[in-house]
Each structure stands twice: as C-alpha cells, then as structure tokens.
Amino acid sequence: MTPLSLQNRRAEADILWPLWLSVLGLMIISAMFIFSTTGGTEITRGVPWYQWTATRQVIAFGIGLFVVLGLSLVDYIRMARWAMVGYWVSIALLMAVHVLGTSRNGARRWLDLGPIQFQPSELAKLTFLFAMANFLARPSSELRSPSVFLKALMLTLLPLGLILKQPDLGSSLVFLPITLVMMLVAGVPQRFVIKLLGGAFLIVSLIAIDIFIAPENWRLIRLQNYQRERLLVYFNADFAPDSATPEQRQRATQRKRQMSWNVEQALISVGSGGFTGKGWREGTQHRLGYLPRLGAHNDFIFSVIAEERGFIGSVAVVTLYGIILFSGIKTAGESRDRLGRLLAIGVVTLFFVHIFVNIGMNIKLMPVTGIPLPLLSAGGTSVLCSLIAVGVLQNIHLYRKRY
Amino acid sequence: MLIFDQFNKGERPLRWMAGVVGAGLLLLLIGLLRVQIFGHHRFEQSLQTQSFQSVRVPALRGRILDRQGRECVGNVPRYRLDVYLETLSRDFTREYGLLRREVVAARGGTNISSPGLWERMMSKLRHDRPRVLIRPEENSLLWRQARYNVLSNVVSRVANKVGLPLTLTESELHRHWANSRALPLAVLKKLTPQQVSLLTEQSWSIRGISIELQAVRHYPHGPMAAHTLGYLVRADDFEGEEGESFDYRLRDYRGAAGLEAAFDTALRGTSGSKSILVNSDGYRVGETMTTAPVPGQNLITTLDIEVQKATESALSAVSGEERGAVVVLDVRNGDVLAVASAPSFDPGEWIDGISRARWTNYYDVPKRTPLINRATDGAYSPGSTFKIVTALAALENGLDPDRVQIVEANPSKPGKGLFQRGNIRIEDTAPPGPYDFRRAFIRSSNAYFIQLGLDAGYDRLLSTAHRFHFGEQTRIQLRPTEERSGWMPEPAEARAERWPQGRLANFSIGQEVTVTPLQLAVMVAAVANGGTVYYPRLVDRLESGDPLSEEAPSSIRPGQVRSRLETRPEYLARIRAAMRDDVLDPEGTGTSARVADYTVCGKTGTAEIKGNGVKDKVTWFASFAPFESPRYAVVVMVESGASGGRTCGPVAQKIYEHLRARDAGSGRPIALNSAP
Predict the structure, then answer these.
(1) B317 shares a domain with B266
(2) Would residue B149 count as lying in a domain?
(3) A3 min Cα distance to partner chain B (Å)
(4) A221 phi and psi, to 5 degrees?
(5) How large is the average pLDDT for residues A166-182?
(6) What is the pLDDT of residue A6?
(7) Residue B262 contacts residue B240 (beta carbons within 8 Å)
(8) Which residue of B104, B343, B565, B632 is surrounded by the most CB atoms within 10 Å?
(9) Chain A to chain B Cβ contacts (< 8 Å)
(10) 3-state secondary structure A344-376
(11) Mean pLDDT by 10 residues, chain B (676 residues)
C-alpha cells in the first residue's frame, strides 16, 4: 500500500486538522505582530517591503511548509535511518559556528550564509531529537544495560556542551528535559532516570555556583556579562562581589537597576495590555524603545502581543499552543511503534519547554534567556525547525497504520 | 473531547506527560491572569513613570596654578536660562487642540464652500460635520507646530524681560524634543548678573523656566602662556570612559593642547551620573543623583606669572607681529619659569567654539600658525648659538684657546672673512684677521669655528651635541606630540653615509641641524651650572582641589638630572667667560642684552634658511645670568628677525631687567610655596 494512495483514500482523517489550523493561526499572528513591532521603523527608514522582517518571516513560513510537504512523502521510519547522519552534521555545524560564526551580543550563534543567517543550535535540537528517538527505539530490554544509558547520555552532552560554549545557556539547557522525558517514555529503568535527574541537577547547580559564587578567574563557563546579569536579576542577587569597594558597589546597583528595568519593561508591557489590549500597532512599550529594541520582534514578541491584544490575545496564543501540544501527545499515543511515540513525545517536550520558558520570562516567571517562541518569534531557522517538527507529528499520524 | 482522549487509553508516561503540559499551560494562564487582569492597574500606572534615563554629569575641572599658587586657569560661574519641557506639556496639548480644530474647520470649510442642494440637505440630516481625516504625518507636524508656538511664546516673554532678542528655531526645538526631551532646553546660554536679577525678580509669572548655574573655564590672564596651558574643546564622546552607557551626557570639555591636554584625565576628575525618572511621554518626572562627580585635581606648574608676563611683553616689543619663542629656565634645577610663543591666542575663545571666519582669518594662516608652541614644537637651525657646542668639542679635542689663527679676506666682499679649503668655501660675516678663541667667539667668526669643527670631526662634534640630548625630546610634561626632537644626526650615520666635509663645516656653525628653543635653553643651563643636563620641569604637582582632602598630592621631583657632561670645569668656565664677553665687550655681538649691574652672558645666532627659493632668517640669543652665580637661562628665538644681536638681544635684556629687579627688589626668592 503506497503512502500516496493511503492519503487519497483517507485524506480527511489523516490530516491533523486541529494541529494545522493552530499552526496557521500562529503564523498569521506572528506575521502581524512582527509587522507591528518592526514595520513602523522599517517603513520610515524606507526599507522596501520585500525586505521587511515580517516579509522574511512569511517567506520562511512558505519554505517551511514546502519542506514539510516534501518530507511527508517519506515515512518517519525511513527518515530515522538518517538520524545519526543529521546528528553529526549538526555537531559539525555547531563546531563551525565556533570558528566561522558571526557574533551578536558577544555570543557566536550564527553562520553567515550571505543573505540569510543560519542558527545551527536550532537545527541541532531537531536532529538530536531524531537521533535520540532512533537510539532509544531499540527493544526495551537493551535499555537496561548501563552502556546504552551512557551512550544516550553522551548523545545529549555533546551538543549541550557545544551550545553552552557559544555561549547560549538557555538553548543548551533545553536538551536536558528532552532527554529526561524521552528516556522515561522509552522505558529506561527508573534508577537510570533518577541518576540522570541527579546529573541534571548537578549540572544546573554547578552552573549556578559557577555564575553566582565562583571568583571571576575561576569560572569555567565564560558567560557574557549580560547573561550573568540576567540571571542575577532573576534571582535578585547582588551584582557586586563581596570584595567590592563602595564605589563599585554603587555602580553595580545602578547596573542592576538598568538590567532589571528591561525585565520590568516586558512585565509592564504584558500587564498594561489589560483584558482587551491597546489595539494592533498601538502598543507604546516597544514603540518608545522600552522593550529591548533588538528583542521585541523575537524573544519578546509575546509581550508585544499581550500589550496590544491583552489577556484575550495571550489566552488565544496559549490555547493554540495547547492544541498543538495535546495533538502531539495524542499522536504519540496512537503511534504503534516506539520510534513514532518517542519522536512525537520529543517534539511535544521541545515545544513545551520553549513555550513555557519564553512566555514565563515575559511574565517574570523565568529568567531572561534567548529561547524563541516556536512559530511566533522572528527567525528563519527557528521557524523552519518548528514547522519540520510539526511536520514530523503529521508524518507519524499519517503512517501510523502501516502494519 | 478529542484532545483529552489519551487520558483514558494512553499509557502511564503519556498520561503524566499530558498532566505536566496541562499544568504548565495552566500555570502560564494563571500568571497571565495575575499580571494582565489583577495587576493591570499597577502596571498601567508604572507605565506612566517606570523609566529611568541616566545622565552623565561632568565634574568640576581642576585649576592650573603658577608656582606661587596664583591662578593661571580657573572656573567661573555662568548663568544659563533653561526651559523645562515637562512643565509645558499641558500647554502643548491645549495648543495642539486649537491647531487641530483650525485644520478641521479649514478642511470642513472647503468642503461646504460650494455645496449642492443634496449636500445641504444631507448635512442637515447628518448632525455631525463631515469627518476630516488627518494623516499621521500631518498630525506629528501639528504637534511640532504646537510645541513651537508654546515655546516661542515663553521665550519671547523672557526676551521682553531681559531686553534681548532671543531666537529659537523650530528645528532646534524639534531636535531637542526628539533627542533629549527629559533634559531642559537651554534658551539663553550667557546671562549677565543684571539679567539674572531681572529674571529672578519677575520670572515667577513665566512657567517652566529656571536659571541654571554652570562652571565655565576661565583664563584670567587672557592669552598669557596659552600654548603651555592649552585650551579646551567640546567633547561629547567619552565612549566607555567609565564603562557605563548613558542616555544623555551634559556638555563636557576635553583638553586639546598644552597642560590641559597632557593632564586631561587628572584635571577632568570623575564624572558623576544622575537618573531621571521619565514618564511614557518622555518627559521628566523627577531626578536623583546616583553618583556625585569627583572634581578634578589642581595642577601646580613651575611657571611664575610675573616672569611669564614680563617675558611675553618683552617678546611682543620686537614688532608686535613677530613670530618667535622665549624659554626661561632655572639653571640650578631645570624648572621652567616662563615659556612664551608668539603669535599667541586667547584660550577662552575656544569655550563656545571658534567661528569659521575666525579660524580662517586668524588660526589657519600659513607661517603665522598661532596654535603651534614654537618653544617646544618648532625646530630651527641654531646658527651661531651652536658654536657653544662646537667650542666644547674643540676644547676637549685639545684646542689651545690662546693660539692665534688668521682668517683670510673675502675678495668679493671687502671687510669680510672667508673660509676656504678644498672645495669648501663659506663666506663669513666677521672681518678677516687674527683670531684667538675669545675674539672668535665674541665676533662669531664662522671661519674660525669651521676650522675647529673640521679639526674635531663628525664623531666628536655630533657626540658632544648628543651629550646635551639634542635630537631627543626633552620630555617636558606636555604631550609628546607637542614636542619636536629636532634633527641632530648620530655620528654613525655620518660615518656610514660618508658625508662630505662641507656638511661638517655647516654643522659646526649650526646650519642644517635643528633644535627647539627649549633644547637650547637646557644646553645653556648645563653650561651655566657646571655641566648638569636637567630634565626641564613644567609641573610641580597635582593635588586635590578640596583643601580638606586627605589625598596626598602627587608631585614631580625638582632637579631631575638627565645626564652630566663629564668634562673639565675649565672648558665650561672658558665658554662662560666668552659668553660674558660677548655681551660686555664693545666688540661683542650681544651688547644689546647688557643690563646695568647684572652680568648677562650670551651668544647670538642668525641662521639662514633657504626654502622654496625664499631666503629667511632665524635669529637667536642664548644666554644665562648672572655670571658670578648663574641662575637663569633665557633663550630667545625670533623668526625672520634682523640678527641675533639686534632682534633678540633686547628681548633678553628686558627679561633680565625684570629678573634682576625681582631678585633684588622684593627679596622674595622665586621658590615654590609648596607644602613641606
């Protein structure tokens, strides 16, 4: 039975309508609010319409959907055979970033490919997901062997470490919950999972010690100052070291107020939206430059939506994400093989972590990190990978009854 | 419902997963509910005020004082009239309302100007007038206009009070409003005390204005020592100076030359910062000083204002249009008592910026170049004053000063001597005849000294010059870019390139090589004090401007020895005696510098410069006094003068007159009143 004929016969049942309608809704919201944030300045600066950030985002959506359509011709089991190839390609790209990458804000995250800039860490999340699912899809008896567990661990730590070096703390820590959830679902024995949990806790606390307590020369992870300060702001910690002179301390206090001011501004944006919001393109926070100008259309897009469309808008966004997440879980449940289930769960976790951390940071629930909001934040690589991830869910659904 | 199906049939991990995701989304919704619904009012309010903008506040610049603590450069208060825009924001809105109504009326008027019957009937039915569309661009222009109307109203009322025409252009206002709305707008920058009192008496009726006091650089002696003290230029770019970013910077200055530039960091102090609380319209709500600025340190120089003034007036007596320089050193320790360079300029002019006309007509004139400090930044051929060096080299070479040498006559110029050997032929200005060392020195015989130079050779002559550190900067406490090293080749260079003897002949009488007036003064001082080459000292110390400060002043030790000549004292004594006779002996070239009851010792010089086909002269007088116990070295240089004796001698004479009266009359020694 060829996939195509199957699609013809059962087209209606096989397309995950709630999933795709939500994706469509998010894409429209994304284009609208990216335009609301950046369109004004771009028009006044005389940028031609085809170079607007919003237009680029729409193009990225188009390319993404096209890729998804292409990928739907191949079933996920055949795709998974290439998982390790994709994994190593991503690792190579991550290494290339350290050498050839362009830096913004002091972090090397982008590969410059002429007109577009490519962010390998986004791709790495996706390929890692495939590799991990493929690896854990082996019979559950094998999962009891410690060596398999260790290999899975290495699989996680390699990209995590490379991304941590960029430095991109937020994106690297995303790998931990994904591994954890996939292992749980795969049926890795509890003791291993507990070890992993302990290990993750250890890593996080080591990073915390590194950041908050270690003297400057001893730090292993050289976080950029702004990253450290973001975390310090979140935990309301003191900026100045204990040994600081009163003058330094005074400076540090001022710095802290400046830094926490940005976080506070995002919160004010969200809060001042109220129930119905100020109206599309009427938000004042990003317009007057209170939101970080570089971040308003990507990392802080949610606060723009929340300000201009209010509680109704933010609930709508959360609901759309909810539909995507639960469709994913449902797809995982329907899948008849372990690979499909693991893939679907991986995608759900990936999305959930991004959504929770990003929206959380806009309402001061989470520290500020550079984690984008899937499908909403401006950024081609992120959009492409998010759409492929959704496509994977569809693919699993499409080929679920192969047996 | 479809979505929740897996709760029933899914396996345990998936149920857990669904639970966690659901809980997470719920948490976000609760958070959003809290922030957007319950916290709405709080954030709405903070939207009004939650915004800090930091302003860099410059520190009070340190003063520059002379060796007795008299002020060379200080600060004076200046009154400025500011308008605070936030106090007028309501007027802006009201004026905008009026303007908008006018526009609407105008548009509505054109619409109804020729109404047909139908229109008239319809307009009666419609209880509203037709809506007029005002495009956003038009709207912002209306706001601009409204702000300008209100502001120019305020400004013209002030103008009436003060009796001054005040001009505020619309674009000026708009630039300020767009870029630094939270800061007051300065409408009048220099107010006289009378205007201040006028305004303070009556200004209560004008809303939004205030008089601000600022410190402005003040040069109480005008152009005195301008080159040494330097001047300031506006500086708005202190990038990363204190590792902080500011939204605004209040106007600050940077030293552009002289001591102001060399000690800029110490004089400037540490800027402070204040935070301005700004509301969502960008207007100021309040402000707090976060770090107070720390005033700059005072700089105590070794200059003496009175000597400096006497020196400058002596130099300006040459012609009033002269280009030249004078350096007065204390030969006992290298302290610089006065440095003059002409033409000069008034550093106070630079505070508000130099107009283009002033720049092209005064500063940017070729040859005049008033900004160049000729005493340190001008390198000139020393001419006959260099014979002091040639003499020392010859004496060390075993010259018998009493041996008589005959200078032959110049056949083409009767009464003048001539040096001729091989293909070297140099005309002399001194007459032919028999010369011993003393007579050759005071008549400045070129033929005699060329012979000495040739006998000594390149090695001895040039290395002697290098013992006085010619060809190197003196490292006076100015920026290295403001001091030239002059050109004094290394002996090795002459050897390696096999320079001809003719060049050595030129060197011996101070042609081709170049020196700065300051270098020459250091040289004369070394001859006068018995062979010690000092580092010239221009700065005594930096100390806190606050008299109660505990901070220890950082000082530069006086009398720092750079090197010693290591020569026989009788050679120097012989040269000093010859220098004395050059002034005292009626036959000498330097008689114009003679001062009654004060033995001035000197050497004149006139160097010929041929450049671009034009012949020009640099005239010199290098001297010290008194002969018995040398104290001062005075070097005078005038470009395009007549001759060293005629042009520079009288300048030195006037300076020595002052120095003599000063030492004898007041009995006050020229010493630093520094703390023990």
Answers:
(1) no
(2) no
(3) 25
(4) -95, 120
(5) 86
(6) 47
(7) no
(8) B632
(9) 136
(10) HHHHHHHHHHHHHHHHHHHCCCCCCCCCCCCCC
(11) 47 85 92 84 60 75 93 89 80 85 71 49 54 70 87 81 76 80 78 78 67 86 94 69 58 88 90 73 70 88 95 92 94 95 92 86 86 94 95 94 90 86 84 93 94 93 95 93 94 89 92 95 96 95 80 85 94 96 94 93 91 84 94 95 93 95 66 45
What CA–CA distance (Å, rounded) separates B266 from B62?
8
Per DSSP, A298 falls in state: T
Contact B27, A43 (CB under 8 A): no
Q: Is residue B131 part of a domain?
A: no
**Nearest-by-Cβ selection for A274 from B34, B36, B273:** B36
Contact A270 B44 (CB under 8 A): no
Structure tokens at A164: 């941590």
Q: B279 in contact with A at a CB cutoff of 8 Å?
A: no
Q: What is the Cα–Cα distance from B507 to B484, expressed in whole angstroms? A: 19
**B649-B72-B256-B310 Cα dihedral, nearest 10 degrees:** -10
Yes or no: say if A170 and A357 are a contact pair by the CB < 8 Å rule: yes
In this structure, is residue B559 part of a structural domain?
no
Beta strands in B92-195 (DSSP E): 185-191
Overall residue count recorded for chain A in this entry: 403
| B398 and B291 housed in the same domain | no
Domain ranges, residue B267: 54-86+162-301
Angle of the A301-334 helix axis to the B12-32 helix axis, nearest 10: 160
CA distance B89 to A29: 36
Put simply, the chain B residues between 223 and 252 with a CB less than 8 A from any chain A CB are 244
Return the pLDDT at B245.
57
Across A130-134, A239-243, B288-292, B601-605, least confident range: A239-243
Structure tokens at B343: 């033409």
Q: Distances in Å between the alpha carbon of A184 and those of A348, A400, B25, B489?
A: 14, 22, 21, 84
What's the Cα-to-Cα distance from B477 to each of B484, B540, B631, rounded to whole Å? 13, 10, 22
Total number of domains in chain B: 2
Contacts of B273 in chain A (CB under 8 A): 254
Q: Are residues B227 and B278 in the same domain?
A: yes
How many Cβ atoms are within 10 Å of B421's Cβ, its own excluded? 14
B21, B44, B45, B137: best to mutate for the A interface, most A CBs within 10 A:
B21
CATH label of the domain that carries residue B230? 3.90.1310.10
More confident residue, A47 or A201: A201
CB within 8 Å of A248: residues ≥ 6 apart: A240
DSSP bridge partners of A117: A112
The predicted structure's pLDDT at residue B269: 86
pLDDT at A49: 82
Q: Which of residues 35-74 of B touch A (CB under 8 A)?
A: 35-37, 39-40, 42-44, 46-47, 50-52, 54
Question: B505-525 in b/e burial notation, b at 16+ Cβ within 10 A?
Answer: bbbbbbbebbbbbbbbbbbbb
Name residue, tokens 């400060």.
Answer: B549
Residue for token digits 């975390």? A231
A326 touches chain B (CB under 8 A): yes
Output the six-digit token pair for B451: 């012979």
B54/A258 Cβ within 8 A = yes
Return the H-helix or E-strand segment holding B75: strand B71-83
Cα separation, B242 vs B637, in Å, equals 44
Q: What is the dihedral of CA B182, B184, B187, B193, to 10 degrees?
A: -170
Two tokens at A149? 């567990």
Residues 6+ apart with CB under 8 A from A331: A16, A340, A344, A393, A396, A397, A400
| Chain mean position to CA A24 | 19
Question: How far apart, in whole angstroms, are the C-alpha atoms of residue B577 and residue B470?
Answer: 23
pTM, two decimals, is 0.60
| Residue A136 to residue B76: CA distance in whole angstroms | 80
Residue B402 lies in a domain: yes
